[in-house]
Specification:
Blueprint: E1 9-13, E2 16-17, H1 22-36, E3 40-45, E4 47-48, H2 50-55, E5 58-62, H3 71-88, E6 92-95, E7 104-106, H4 111-119, H5 128-139, E8 144-147, H6 150-160, E9 167-169, H7 181-195, E10 202-210, H8 217-230, E11 235-242, H9 246-254, E12 261-264, H10 270-276, E13 279-282, H11 291-298, E14 303-306, E15 323-324, H12 329-341, H13 345-348
Parallel strand pairs: 1-3, 1-6, 2-4, 3-5, 6-7, 7-8, 8-9, 10-11, 10-13, 11-12, 13-14, 14-15
């Protein structure tokens, strides 16, 4: 490392660090915070971009990846991290769920709860992610467990018997230099022209990193069909993310609304997509937090969230009317229709 060798070393262990994911952004934000506290920071990962780690003030250390799928590759990563730490003796080890640590475990997801809410059943024995999460959380070696919503805190408390005093809720943030009303507004005309949206059409969008089953894109298509019946020709619908669009395209075709949909993969200037929208929706069956919700709001875009989205916890006190059950399609259609008919729609997001 190039920093002062006398400074204490902090290690962040996360299998992949790519800026396009919320987990990666969390890791980089942690690196910046640890650096500000006077630590030298190393990010231990199997995959990642060195320049992004260095921009956060950290050194990226790539560990050899086990080439085959299955629970063992997660445990292999844990072993490689432990071996590296025995050699370098860090003052702090921050785990992102796949590594045992005496310090802090930062969890991004509740895989057991997700299976129950999405599929209505428990995970099969030997599930790759569940196996390592169970090992780390049942082992209880950590001093502090950090989660990104009260929903997560309650699940881990009840599922693993972790005392509440050891759990800390840390809501993710957003970058105000990127996600703000000025940038979103400036990019709106160009982006809407690119998408083929005229001034009289309302654009409703679901923007996510991927996993369309979890984020309930099927439910979004159902909502679109219901809204099209009530307000024919007045709305278009945008889905953005990295996943297989084909089953949802077929669903839209079967519902007779294929021409009302726009499908896009993720883009770097996503703030212009938030700005292009009239309403952002996230009807996820489970979303442990959902930074996209904060980003959309920061861009001045009105939002509707499912009650199983962690970010909804920030709205429930003052804006409970913007929180709905993920599977109650009629309630979503009713609320969207009311929002579109309200004269103050353009100011709701601010």
């Amino acid at each position: 490392m190039t920093e002062d060798s006398q400074a204490p070393l902090a290690v962040i262990a996360i299998r992949q660090v790519e800026k396009s994911t919320g987990a990666s952004r969390n890791a980089f934000e942690q690196a910046i915070a640890l650096k500000a506290l006077g630590y030298r920071v190393a990010i231990l990962a199997e995959r990642g971009r060195r320049e992004l780690a260095e921009a956060a003030g950290a050194e990226l250390v790539r560990l050899k990846r086990w080439p085959f799928k299955g629970p063992f590759r997660r445990f292999w990563f844990n072993r490689r991290v432990q071996a590296w730490c025995r050699r370098h003796r860090p003052a702090m080890l921050v785990s992102h769920g796949d590594v045992e640590t005496p310090d802090v475990v930062y969890m991004h997801n509740c895989v057991h709860l997700a299976s129950q809410r999405i599929h209505g059943r428990d995970l099969p024995p030997g599930h790759e992610v569940a196996a390592i999460h169970d090992h780390v959380l049942k082992g209880g070696k950590f001093r502090r467990l950090a989660v990104n919503s009260r929903m997560m805190a309650n699940d881990f408390r009840d599922r693993y018997g972790i005392d509440e005093s050891r759990i800390e809720i840390s809501y993710p943030g957003y970058d105000p230099e990127i996600f703000n009303l000025e940038r979103a507004t400036a990019g709106r005309p160009v982006r809407r022209r690119e998408l083929g949206i005229d001034d009289d059409t309302r654009l409703i969008g679901l923007i996510t990193s991927g996993n369309f089953t979890k984020r309930n894109v099927a439910g979004f298509v159902e909502m679109a069909a219901g809204l099209e019946q009530r307000l024919p020709g007045r709305c278009r619908f945008l889905v953005v993310g990295k996943d297989d669009f084909s089953p949802y395209r077929r669903q839209a075709e079967q519902a007779g609304i294929a021409e009302r949909f726009i499908w896009r993969t993720t883009v770097s200037d996503v703030e212009t997509l938030y700005g292009a929208l009239d309403i952002f929706v996230l009807p996820a069956h489970i979303e442990e937090f959902g930074r996209v919700s904060l980003e959309a709001m920061a861009c001045g875009t009105p939002v509707l969230l499912s009650s199983t989205t962690g970010a909804a916890e920030l709205l429930e006190a003052d804006h409970a009317d913007l929180i709905l059950e993920s599977r109650d399609t009629k309630a979503w259609v009713d609320r969207l229709e009311r929002m579109l008919e309200e004269p103050g729609l353009d100011s709701l997001g601010t």
